[in-house]
Design a protein that fits this description.
The complex is a heterodimer of chains A (202) and B (108).
Chain A (H helix, E strand, L loop, with lengths): L3 E4 L11 E3 L1 H7 L9 H17 L5 E3 L1 H19 L2 H6 L3 H9 L3 H15 L5 E3 L7 H4 L9 H13 L2 E3 L11 E4 L2 H8 L3 H6 L1
Parallel strand pairs in A: 1-6, 2-3, 2-5, 3-4, 5-6
Helix pairs in contact in A: 3-6
Chain B lengths: L1 E3 H5 L3 E2 L2 H16 L5 E4 L5 E2 L1 H15 L1 H7 E4 L7 H13 L5 H6 L1
Parallel strand pairs in B: 1-3, 2-4, 3-5
Helix pairs in contact in B: 2-3, 3-4, 3-5
The chains are: A alpha/beta (202), B alpha/beta (108).
Chain lengths: 202, 108
């Protein structure tokens, strides 16, 4: 399978297919404020996919433990930053130590974690947690680290294994053997302008 | 003036970004009509997410600023919603933090 791209601007109805949403799209779904161009449109698309999955129980949205870990680490670090003020920085110049020794044992941490957990559970009826059980370590670690980070590599392998559509604004997945749905204008242009030989191949 | 979220959404669930924008638009219309105060009623709403509150109250904060929203827009009848106050507080907290760069870091 060659790389294929869905331009969400012109194809906003979900396909009869399972989906994998990139972490940067799941973050605002879980309540992090919108902060970048197109977030609203991705959130609208998530609603369409979610509704479609509810109506068609064989369709699922996938996540993996690696992505859950990444998302909760980002959310809880974001919450820590709110209380990591001048005084705290003086007492704990190492933010990781402040997180572990002060923030994590606090009632505030517990409340915030519970809040984000409940946010995710609102959508639990359409999510499946999948993983790469049995994948040889050689294959998992065999990727271009200059292009993808490890979290991206895990997501890529999950998407490849399931044939799901990846919804992502990230241009780094370009050329991988998957279908990506995006609103990233640079990526869309690059795909439309790809060399003729690549068009024939896809 | 009282705005009913369940009437606008025709649902017991206030979950999605789009739903929040519908409520945002209704509040803006009330503000444009020079209503002194706007009560946003969650009567009949069972589930409400932070995603929804960001698109409604979060956008109101960005549009009108803290003082106007605090003075004029009030959520009411939300006691049946789990953790509503915490979620609402989170939206305000995030508004206060918006210029400190944490958000850019989170999305990096």
């Amino acid at each position: 399978m060659a790389f294929d791209l869905i331009d969400l601007k012109y194809s906003s109805n979900p396909k009869d297919c399972c989906y994998f949403f990139d972490s940067n799209i799941l973050l605002p779904i879980l309540g992090l404020p919108n902060n970048w161009q197109n977030t609203g449109d991705y959130l609208r698309y998530f609603k369409s996919v979610y509704t479609n999955c509810l109506e068609n129980p064989h369709l699922r949205i996938y996540t993996c433990t690696n992505q859950l870990s990444e998302i909760f680490n980002i959310l809880m670090n974001f919450e820590m930053q709110k209380i990591y003020g001048e005084k705290e920085r003086k007492d704990y110049p190492n933010a990781k130590k402040f997180f572990k020794d002060v923030f994590r044992p606090s009632a505030n941490y517990e409340r915030k974690f519970e809040l984000y957990k409940q946010e995710f559970l609102n959508y639990a009826d359409v999510f499946d947690v999948i993983d790469l059980g049995g994948m040889p370590l050689n294959d998992l670690l065999n990727f271009d680290a200059k292009v993808l980070d490890f979290n991206d590599q895990v997501i890529l392998q999950c998407v490849k294994n399931t044939g799901a559509i990846l919804v992502s604004d990230d241009k780094d997945f370009y050329g991988c053997d998957i279908t990506q749905a995006t609103l990233n204008g640079i990526l869309i242009k690059r795909f439309k302008d790809r060399p003729i030989a690549a068009v024939a191949k896809s | 003036m009282n705005i009913s979220v369940s009437d606008i959404l025709k649902s017991q669930n206030a979950v999605f970004h789009e739903d929040g924008l519908f409520v945002f638009d209704a509040v803006v219309a009330a503000m444009d009509a020079n209503e002194k105060e706007v009560e946003v009623s969650f009567d009949g709403i069972r589930v409400c997410t932070t995603q929804f509150l960001n698109a409604s109250f979060g956008k109101l904060l960005l549009t009108y600023g803290e003082d106007v929203v605090k003075q004029k827009v009030h959520p009411v009848s939300y006691s049946a919603i789990n953790a509503f106050s915490e979620k609402y507080t989170l939206v305000w907290e995030n508004f206060h933090e918006k210029n400190k760069g944490f958000l850019e870091e989170a999305y990096a």
